[in-house]
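ugh ok fine here u go
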Amino acid sequence: MSARWDRLTAVWGTLMAATLASWAIGTQHGHDHDVRRLATVGVIIVAFAKVHLVGRHFMDLRGAPVLLKIAFTGWVVGVPATLVTIHLLRS
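structure:
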């Protein structure tokens, strides 16, 4: 097996673990308002961490031009930051 497949298999395993983590965060928060707010923030962060992994490893952005990498990373950081800010200000 090549090093590329080993890397992709490790990333896939990380994505599966992140999926289970976000499921656990999203379903085990109880009825406390503050805990639900933090659980939502946690799920958003895990989701965009997964987006970053998929983009870098499965959409081949690792070898993309630098400006595209910067734009993608900016989007992956900016969108969840905006969502979390809106969520925390509104709830």
